[in-house]
Amino acid sequence: MSNPILRTESLSLVYGKGTPFEKQAVKNVSIEINRGEVIGVIGHTGSGKSTLMQMLNGLIKPTSGKVFLDGKDIHADKKSLRNVRFRVGLVFQYPENQLFEETVRRDIAFGPHNMGLPEEAIEKRVKSAAAFAGLKPELLDRSPFDLSGGEKRRAAIAGVIAMDPEVLILDEPTAGLDPMGREDLLSQIDAYHKSRNNTVLLVSHSMEDIAGIADRVLVMNHGECVMLDTTQNVFSKAAELEKIGLRIPQITKITSELRAKGVPLSEGILTVSEAFEEIRAILKKEGRL
Amino acid sequence: MDFIRTEHLSFYYEQEDEQQNTPIDVLRDVSLSVKKGEFLAVIGHNGSGKSTLSKHFNAILLPTGGKVFVEELDTSDEDRIYDVRRKVGLVLQNPDNQLVASIVEEDVAFGPENLGVAPEEIRRRVDEALKAVDMYEYRLHAPHKLSGGQKQRIAIAGILAMEPDCIVLDEPTAMLDPKGREEVISAVTKLNRERGITVVLITHNMDETTRCDRVVVMDKGRILTEGTPREVFSQVQLLRSHRLDVPQATELCSMLSACGVDFLQLPLDTEECVKVLSEVLL
Amino acid sequence: MMRDITLGQYYPSNGVLHRLDPRIKVLLLIGVIVLIFCTFNFYALGVVALLVAASVILSKVPVKLYLKSMKAIILVILITSLLNLFYGTGEPIFQWWIFKVTADGIKNSIYVAVRIISLVMVSSSLTFTTSPTDLTDALERLMKPLSVLKIKTHEIAMMMTIALRFVPTLLEETDKIMSAQKARGADMESGNLIRRIKALIPVLVPLFVSAFRRAYELAMAMECRCYQGGEGRTRMKQLHMSARDFVALGVLLVAVAGVVLCNIFL
User: Who's near A31: CB < 8 A, 6+ residues apart?
Assistant: First the structure.
């Protein structure tokens, strides 16, 4: 696509330049992210992925290189930087730790309020954001500190969704949730993306989560972007990923090992149901089912 | 031999609400035993009562109904509370909030210091505990500069230095990345295998439980099912209907077996799955 | 980045001062501070200055770091010595408008400057050469006799230990919360004072909530580790006085004698 929503140009970040603690957190990252895509971002803790995400909405200023949002350099005009944060919404890790208002409603309204929207518009946004995040309407008038862990997480995510960002970045949104909470939240994010058709970047340690939702996967290692390709292509490169200490989803691993043994399965199978269908088809063809 | 035994354990707390004072049942009639030297995993959703259960094992919480015994000690006997805690150590979820001192070795020394152990003996225990979790070379570091997995291993060493017979870990991996998780699980597995320490691992990551001797599944304050990992994970339907995770390997084969493919037993991991499927497909 | 701030200014090295018993170091510091204020002539002041210079050299910490710690209070030194310069009594040496400078004034201002500089230097030499934990440890042990007066010395020391442990964690957390609120458009850099204070609410509320949660969890963790207060507690680290500690005390005594002699006879 010719007009990416986000583009970076040899983005680099060095901490503590000139001191003995000098550390290159992000190294020469040039990527393009297209409108409407869901990008999975994977990499070790300390691989620079969280730092990169904070550079995409201008929270961290690069030591060199540029970030373009919709073709415009986000650091070109200092005054518009705040506006960039409304357009590129960032949900931090453990976002429930940022809740502070008396009611959930007011907390979700914090972002839209900062945008200077009129009251009616804010109210509308709060309601729809809460719905997108899967937060029951009756919780809106409760104190955020009375909610359960999972509900707090949803309230915090709704606080960013309420800004109606063109790009939504979620940094490990499912960390610490149980399998049920994880599954629900991911399908909520998927539904949100499908209905708004905006761009979503999802940082996660769970390859199974990424496999289920991402169009493309960005792999970070030691501050560098080592891969940015379709989910199937990235997870087909098991050996390369394992070299940098990352896994592939168990189901992908199983099917690719079977494939190596001569079972005619497709490359880069990402979900259990895909694998199931293919294996069933094989067995049916052989007349064994 | 039973090391920890709960008899009809129930626990509820009063909701601090202005309108109503309804008791919330967290545990309902749980009878469970942990055998000496066993590696037991307790899995279940948030709110299934598994964390509350773990806090009964070392008298941090006391039952509102029923009894908990650690060896012959009744945990509700106030005079013996520290004897119970010396036998059963508890590691909590958030590694940041359970380290007391700003130097690793001093933190590990905290437990034995509280027990009034002699200084030279504390030194010996601290060094040994740190070696047991592979953190000896970090003994002079500041905890806040370590990774999550390292911090959690320091927390385990801190419990280990009290020389308990049993370590209970309450979701020790929930806040860790995959590497940290692996570090912690290998460390406790090693403690169980090499030192015979009884381990109770509370988790909601099913893939951490495959190395256990026995798995207990909790749901809504009750024991849903229990058995060896294989016995438990073979009940894919039951687990799925309670929206619990099943390894993808097991899930795939259970779907196939529902269509009529015969498996001797359902696989638990990648290797087993590849093996049984290549037998079927090749 | 806030997380790079280290508490105190401990500078690891293996100088003589680093290896002294922290209790002795605290006592020495108190001794030198008393001496600084008991110098009544230039000779006595010279003795103290020598002592301070010796401690700076023996600390094996770059002098640059000492100068850096001076930078913060250079203004204080300038103002107090200027004030002293103009408030002297006696014959003016130099007079302009309402300002008159007397010999007495010059003397006083030099006194004040040297005293403040010595004070900062010698305190820094303690914090540079002693890790915060050692310092807390030393204070706990030195305070022990105070427990006779029903002062809860163990509790105070425990609080200091926990504070040392959690300050970096909370600083890091503050950093994170601020970024998270900025991502929601919080504006913390512009506006008048009231607006800025108001803008801190979204940071302070979550910070307090988290501090309380941490406190609750830490208390539970401490209970799990059989914490029952100071009674019956032992310590892994035992502090032992060695020959060099006695030598250090000896040096202080010689300096005290020197200052007393200078004060009386010169």
Answer: A6, A7, A8, A218, A225, A228
